[in-house]
UniProtKB/TrEMBL annotation, chain A:
The keyword Transferase applies. This is Glutathione transferase GST 23. It comes from the Eukaryota. Keywords: Transferase.
UniProtKB/TrEMBL annotation, chain B:
One of its GO terms (molecular function) is glutathione transferase activity. CDD domains: GST_C_Tau, GST_N_Tau. Keywords: Detoxification, Transferase. Residues 87-214 form the GST C-terminal domain. It comes from Citrus sinensis. The keyword Coiled coil does not apply. GO terms for biological process: glutathione metabolic process; toxin catabolic process. This is glutathione transferase.
Length: 225, 222
């Protein structure tokens, strides 16, 4: 039976990008559709009724949602260029750091991005504390996955380009080279890796988009209480 | 080398209890260490420096944290009585629903517990929709795992035991048999299993604990 692999994503979603990366890294033939989230396709709504979000991977008609779940599914289905190591303990560590990325890093950086004034200062402080764990984890390693890109690298990969976008919009540097030498080096290596480097959404377009996303928070904070 | 398995947990945590259940289902002998979260042990802080939380599984001195990560690890090390299915698509579905329970259902339940007025109506509706999705997953099966309990069942014990208990304490009617007949049938079936009952908090102690916590949270928010 001819393999049918379809990826529903958007031009800008970092979560969709993860799924895009793993399929490309494994050389899987696939189609993708960039959704307009203000006008979700019937296919998206039908494939992900629980969350109605991207990304969704549809493999031979069967949909899988949640980007980290998609990554593991792709890794188990197409065995070439494995993303997860063989050893169960190393696998557990990889899953731990991927989760940490979404639960803590993403959340703390988003807070630093949307908050204003004193709250922003605090949020930035917390984001930096969170990033320190990543810096520590990179000791002696080229990638979070070791010598080559692994699950946590794809999970955290959004940092490599979106951090620059956020920093530009809020006018604050979050990942300074002096404070985060390993993380900075990793960001550069990841950003320029084969397959990854061809996939980044256009910088200016991202800046415009995220600036617009931040507006309501700025406006709300400016309201007299 | 003699196997050394230690579990750092608390008696009332559903996340900790699910690890006990997985180990017991596979017949893995382990040492259990009850943590006092107001006075965390140096071992806990050493084994989980990032989150400083329970549960932590320590296997031959190597620590693993995050309950669903621990469940997958256990399943990979001890192959008997598998928790996750073999088929990649079924595994993806199990992981999806596991994530859904811990990230969505639990959070909405917490919100619904404490919301008031109009917000309460909205959150209760959201909770209803979410639990309906979960209920539909049972789809005629005895358990989420099919004929025997699996990954999703183990994660969903929080729904089977903790949700009705909180409901009883709060005196609300958001999670009832009338609204969720299929889910309640599953609850009955799963709570009949001996090993599940071996791993649940003792009822009276649990009831008193949840009461005290909710009172504490309510007065803190005032």
């Amino acid at each position: 039976m001819a393999e049918e692999v379809k990826l529903l994503k958007t031009w800008s979603s970092p979560f969709g990008l993860r799924a895009f990366w793993i399929l490309k890294l494994k050389g899987v033939q696939f189609d993708f559709i960039d959704e307009d989230l203000s006008n979700k396709s019937p296919l998206l709504l039908q494939s992900n009724p629980v969350y109605k979000k991207v990304p969704v991977l549809i493999h031979n008609g069967k949909p899988i949602s949640e980007s980290l779940v998609i990554l593991e599914y792709v890794d188990e289905t197409w065995k070439q260029n494995p993303l997860l190591p063989e050893d169960p303990y190393e696998r557990a560590r990889a899953r731990f750091w991927a989760k940490f990325g979404d639960d803590k890093v993403l959340a703390s950086i988003w807070n630093a991005f949307i908050k204003q004034g004193k709250e922003q200062e605090e949020a930035i402080g917390l984001a930096i504390e969170t990033l320190k764990f990543l810096e520590e984890e990179l000791k002696g390693k080229r990638f979070f996955g070791g010598e080559k890109i692994g699950l946590p690298d794809l999970a955290l990969g959004w940092l490599a380009n979106l951090i620059g976008v956020f920093e530009e919009v809020i006018g604050v540097k979050l990942i300074e080279k002096e404070r985060f030498p390993l993380l900075s080096a990793w960001m550069q290596e990841f950003a320029e890796a084969p397959v990854i480097k061809e996939s980044w959404p256009p910088h200016e377009k991202l800046v415009t988009k995220f600036r617009a996303m931040r507006e309501p928070y700025v406006a709300a904070a400016a309201q007299p209480k | 080398m003699a196997e050394e398995v230690k579990l750092y947990g608390t008696w009332s945590s559903p996340f900790s209890r699910r690890i006990e259940l997985a180990l017991k289902l596979k017949g893995v002998p382990f040492e259990y260490i009850e943590e006092d979260l107001s006075n965390k042990s140096p071992e806990l802080l050493k084994y989980n420096p990032v989150h400083k939380k329970i549960p932590v599984l320590v296997h031959n001195s190597k620590p693993i944290a995050e309950s669903q990560v621990i469940l997958e690890y256990i399943d990979e090390i001890w192959n008997n009585n598998p928790i996750l299915p073999q088929d990649p698509y079924q595994r993806a579905m199990a992981r999806f629903w596991g994530k859904f329970i811990d990230e969505k259902a639990l959070a909405t339940r917490m919100k619904a517990n404490f919301a008031e007025g109009k917000e309460r109506e909205l959150v209760t509706e959201e909770f209803f929709q979410q639990m309906k999705f979960l209920e539909n997953e049972l789809n005629g099966k005895d358990f989420f795992g099919g004929e025997t309990i699996g990954f999703v069942d183990i994660v969903a014990i929080v729904v089977a035991i903790w949700f009705p208990l909180t409901q009883e304490v709060l005196g609300v009617e958001t999670f009832t048999e009338e609204k969720f007949p299929v889910l309640f049938k599953w609850i009955r079936k799963i709570t009949e299993i001996d090993v599940v009952n071996e791993c649940r908090p003792p009822r009276e102690k649990h009831l008193a604990y949840v009461k005290a916590r909710i009172e504490g949270l309510k007065s803190a928010s005032k």
